[in-house]
User: What shape does this take?
Amino acid sequence: MTNNTRTLYTGVTSNLEKRVLQPKRKLLPGFTRQYNINRLVYYETFGDIRAAIQREKKIKGWVRAKKVGLILASNPAWRDLSQDWFGKGKC
Assistant: This one.
């Protein structure tokens, strides 16, 4: 996830829609609220939580340029991939 200045946030969740909505509505204190992280620009899905956590740790260990390259490969405009998930007025 990111914000208007493209600060990056990487995390893992078992419920992507819920986890995306939390920072959009500023429901939880912490990094996402402090930096107004409110746009989903990249995600991967896994059938196994251990594989998801392993991938999260790998990505978190990358330099910023490599993370940006991952986003650009599938979402060059940095479009909010969740923009149509919640309907008008829900975020």
